[in-house]
């Protein structure tokens, strides 16, 4: 509720430029809590009787967990669905096209993402094995002040991430409302649309608080298409590379893998949600 209350305010910022400060704070917080996670894990040391086998006790469970993990990774490395929106805010001329700084920014962004998440994944698994919690901060537990600070960093990071991913959605909904449904563009329309969207996402979050399952589900269902194969389809349609050439094969491999990811990851994520829902008391 508190998290949503923040977005009832921030969601009325007009565009990407207006949330640049929020985005920067989110990036800094992401690097900060990731560093705390792997450094605290390293300091805590390798746990006694640590096990590195599969956490599931059945072949089917292991396969579905693998599918869910693929979706989680896809979610972590998604972002192409907002790249064009961000690039549109960069000044562009024939002499200095916006694609040059945008490409550099994307490369740096993925390097930073790797620096944030790979140490957490590798060191966390090394220290805790298959007993590591989906939220590694829960596995650490102590020192409490450090874990509390890291959790606060997570909250700030997610606040910024929400705004970055929601801004194109706001624009899409408002465009449809005006151009397709003939609503008058106004401050009131923006106020209603954005508040309804925030309220809806708050309802989903409160009703289904299964973080790891939702990551896998939406990583495959929502982000895999816009990140891993739709851009390749568009590139092939626009550039029409030579058939069976390197570019042609590369894009088609990405398309096939992206489609598999879109189909399989939601299955794993949905199974995780269903299993956890069996013992969860809604709105308790």
UniProtKB/TrEMBL annotation:
| Main subcellular location | membrane
Q: For this chain's UniProt record, which GO biological process terms are given?
A: amino acid transport; auxin-activated signaling pathway
Q: Does the keyword Oxidoreductase apply?
A: no
Q: Cellular location of this protein?
A: Cell membrane; Endomembrane system
Enumerate the transmembrane spans: 66-84, 105-128, 148-170, 191-211, 217-236, 248-274
One Gene Ontology term, aspect cellular component: endomembrane system
Q: How does it sit in the membrane?
A: Multi-pass membrane protein
Q: Which InterPro entries match?
A: AA_transpt_TM
A single Gene Ontology MF term assigned here is:
symporter activity
Keyword Cell membrane attributed: yes
Keywords of the record, alphabetical order, are: Amino-acid transport, Auxin signaling pathway, Cell membrane, Membrane, Symport, Transmembrane, Transmembrane helix, Transport
What range(s) does the Amino acid transporter transmembrane domain occupy?
Answer: 1-268
Cited function: Carrier protein involved in proton-driven auxin influx. Mediates the formation of auxin gradient from developing leaves (site of auxin biosynthesis) to tips by contributing to the loading of auxin in vascular tissues and facilitating acropetal (base to tip) auxin transport within inner tissues of the root apex, and basipetal (tip to base) auxin transport within outer tissues of the root apex. May be involved in lateral roots and nodules formation.
Task: State the family it belongs to.
Answer: Belongs to the amino acid/polyamine transporter 2 family. Amino acid/auxin permease (AAAP) (TC 2.A.18.1) subfamily.
Mind telling me what this protein is named?
Amino acid transporter transmembrane domain-containing protein
Q: Which organism is it from?
A: Trifolium subterraneum (Subterranean clover)
Which lineage do the record's taxonomy fields give for this organism? Answer: Eukaryota, Viridiplantae, Streptophyta, Embryophyta, Tracheophyta
């Amino acid at each position: 509720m508190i998290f949503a209350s923040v977005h009832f305010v921030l969601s009325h910022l007009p565009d990407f430029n207006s949330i640049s400060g929020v985005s920067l704070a989110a990036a800094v917080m992401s690097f900060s809590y990731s560093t705390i996670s792997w450094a605290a894990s390293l300091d805590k040391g390798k746990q006694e009787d640590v096990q590195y086998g599969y956490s599931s006790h059945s072949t089917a469970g292991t396969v579905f967990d693998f599918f869910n993990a693929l979706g989680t990774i896809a979610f972590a490395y998604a972002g192409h669905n907002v790249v064009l929106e961000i690039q549109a805010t960069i000044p562009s001329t024939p002499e200095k096209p916006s694609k040059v700084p945008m490409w550099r920014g994307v490369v740096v962004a993925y390097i930073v993402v790797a620096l944030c998440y790979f140490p957490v994944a590798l060191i966390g698994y090394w220290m805790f094995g298959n007993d590591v919690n989906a939220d590694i901060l829960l596995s650490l537990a102590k020192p409490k002040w450090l874990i509390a600070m890291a959790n606060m960093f997570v909250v700030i990071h997610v606040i910024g991430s929400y705004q970055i991913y929601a801004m194109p959605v706001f624009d899409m909904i408002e465009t449809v409302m005006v151009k397709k449904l003939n609503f008058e563009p106004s401050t009131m329309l923006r106020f209603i649309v954005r508040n309804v969207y925030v309220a809806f996402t708050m309802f989903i979050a409160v009703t289904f608080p299964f973080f790891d399952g939702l990551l896998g589900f939406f990583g495959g269902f929502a982000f895999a298409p816009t990140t891993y194969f739709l851009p390749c389809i568009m590139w092939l349609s626009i550039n029409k590379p030579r058939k069976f050439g390197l570019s042609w094969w590369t894009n088609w491999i990405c398309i096939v893998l992206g489609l598999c990811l879109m189909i399989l990851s939601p299955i794993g994520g949905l199974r995780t949600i269903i299993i956890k829902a069996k013992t969860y008391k809604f709105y308790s």
